[in-house]
Specification:
The structure is a homodimer. Chain A contains 17 helices and 11 strands. The first copy, chain A, is of the alpha/beta class. The longest helix of chain A is centred in the last third of the chain and has 23 residues. The radius of gyration of chain A is 20 Å and the shape is globular.
């Protein structure tokens, strides 16, 4: 394909793949797109290890890293996280009623409680919200820029000047996700090179304006800065639609979750393959901010009458992350209650994700379907 | 344009325009699209008059009628509406606390209460929910089929067998709006000839699945039945995007509300021109079912702590319609509080509606922009 974004990033197709799984990142990059590793769940050491693995598997082809840098976080919690006690202090900041609700939930669904002492020791390996502090994000940015990355992205809010400055100094383009035209304007003012306009149908943290409306609005607002369309996109028809809207390419996240490479737990993958587009919900129950995810007993209960309500970010992550790890672990051994509770971030396009394919094949299928969609449009206008 | 839908309906462009305004319907039909008159607010006599006017202004070109036939309505209210007392009995079915809340709202915003005796006498002219009963809808269907219409549409739920049978006997294709693939399947089983897949970003009654996801899902579900894309579509780029998704055309409602011909009250039109895509909300406060509309003091107050909550359909319409008529009347004479309360059904694409144009011009602009979008896609694939 011939687009400015393809030339600028040295890629064949303007298809950006967000994934927490290094195998997906490498597979998409090797297939001609640009894989972007979601780094939020990693400690700096673990991220270093992942990026080294990717470097070894992409033969110099471009890939990127996405860091979650919230523009607004619970400062007292952040302070606690930075203080002497570290994560212990942050854990202590979670109100008792939230732990009680969580324990009752585990009991109701017949899920054994995790071994808290053991969990405490291994907690560092998975982050538990610590990386969402500005200190945590800075460490991840430094690790990322130590590698030959082709893009660094900020998933939430305007990237801090520090991030933009460091990236520019390293010659790495900065991308940022936005859910409104107003945010896009602010991001461009902050020095962002590539805007990802993400509609409310997207998985994970998301706003309420749909991709169909948001993309043309953002394109007009930030021109000539290139815009990638995101939110609900899992097929080549949708890629063609996005580019008809004026986008310079697409940013997909959900579609990789049911690929062969994905680390998605098998019981969650099965739920996704069976789900229709109605089976997601925008809920604060996993991170403290509205994030679209599979509807499950977990989201139902947190919205239910017995719920104390979700906490802010990052405290809700501390409550939810450890719980979900235990739920997934128990679910894999067949526990029915745990399977009811299990869920994951995914967009409404989960309804279009009905087969397991290698990530490479997803790229090829999208490009083929893109070409078919363009042919169909040409037949309509009589240009063929 | 060359599409099956164009051939089948005898139109130049597969652009269907839903409007309550006969001038818009005629203008779009005369410009090569297909205007569809929203008939829900009309009595049978008034509808007869409107359709006669359209017949006189389209020179035999095709147009359609849209009737709101709810698949599920409050039966006790419907019964009351059919009974001896008619609308009086239906009015009596509205709980006192809802009237009290409404009166307090008027007082809070400095809007004088309407003359209820006078309103009662003129009420018939505007319907006040009476047409939403099955009896009311049947009368509108009969009037519609007495004219040379090219399409009859059901805006809400599966059309009753009576409607499908009457339309087929008259040789008129039946369209139905759906918000999920499952509903689309049911509509096709009921004999519907054309599916309008309407995303959650649409104005008026709407579901939660976005146009970008819903359209390909519905297209795949009902093939080879043609599907029109609806929800958030106000530009030619979006029309091209919809057809890249597999739609056979588009169904637009919101975009006509700011045209020269539209009967939209001037203060509401001004709000729409100024609004961004963030300024709508899906609320039950006007009809009793979730319907997207401009965010205003009206929607805020009905969601607020003092609100008794919206009633079901059609009771909430009885409360809201008369109130909105008074609000609009008073707002036109400059009352600030009334202007804060005033709103109207509109999709998120209100953010893209920034100029007043003749409806004809909107059609021509969309077709031109459609062609530009296809050219842009050809440049990307290298087909030009």
């Amino acid at each position: 394909m011939r687009t400015e974004v393809c030339e600028r990033f040295g890629i064949e197709f303007p298809l950006f793949a967000f994934s927490h799984c290094r195998d997906v990142v490498a597979a998409v990059t090797n297939a001609g797109g640009l894989g972007v590793l979601g780094a939020v769940a990693y400690t700096p050491d673990r991220l270093e290890e992942e990026l080294r693995w990717i470097d070894d598997h992409v033969g110099g082809r471009p890939y990127g890293v996405d860091v979650l840098v919230p523009s607004k976080i619970d400062e007292s919690a952040e302070k606690a996280g930075r203080g002497e006690g570290g994560l212990d202090t942050m854990l202590a900041a979670v109100p008792q009623e939230h732990w009680t609700f969580l324990f009752q939930l585990f009991e109701k669904y017949g899920v054994p409680l995790p071994d808290f002492e053991k969990a405490k020791k291994t907690r560092d390996a998975k982050g538990a919200g610590a990386q969402v502090t500005s200190q945590g994000a800075t460490a991840l940015i430094d690790v990322s820029l130590g590698h030959p990355i082709g893009l660094i992205a900020s998933a939430l809010g305007t990237p801090p000047p520090l991030m933009v400055d460091k990236a520019k100094a390293a010659g790495v383009p900065v991308a940022a996700l936005v859910g409104t035209a107003e945010h896009a304007r602010r991001q461009v003012a902050a020095g962002v090179d590539l805007i990802v306009a993400q509609g409310g149908e997207a998985g994970g943290h998301t706003g309420e304006i749909s991709t169909m409306v948001l993309v043309p609005e953002v394109v007009d607002t930030v021109a000539p800065i290139p815009v990638l369309a995101a939110g609900g996109i899992a097929t080549g028809r949708q890629m063609a639609a996005s580019m008809a809207l004026g986008a310079s390419g697409v940013w997909c996240g959900s579609v990789w979750l049911t690929t062969e490479e994905a680390e998605t737990p098998p019981h969650v993958k099965a739920k996704m393959l069976a789900a229709t587009s109605r089976d997601t919900v925008r809920s604060r129950s996993r991170t403290g901010k509205p994030a679209r995810q599979l509807k499950s007993a977990w989201t139902d209960e947190w919205e239910g009458p017995a719920s104390p309500g979700a906490l802010g970010m990052p405290l809700q992550m501390i409550v939810a992350e450890g719980a979900m790890r235990q739920i997934n672990k128990v679910a894999e051994s067949g526990n029915e209650g745990a399977r009811e509770l299990a869920n994951y971030f995914v967009g409404q396009c989960v309804g279009l994700m009905n087969t397991v394919r290698p990530a490479r094949q997803v790229v090829y299928d999208m490009i083929e379907e893109f070409a078919e969609a363009v042919e169909r449009l040409n037949a309509i206008t009589g240009a063929d």
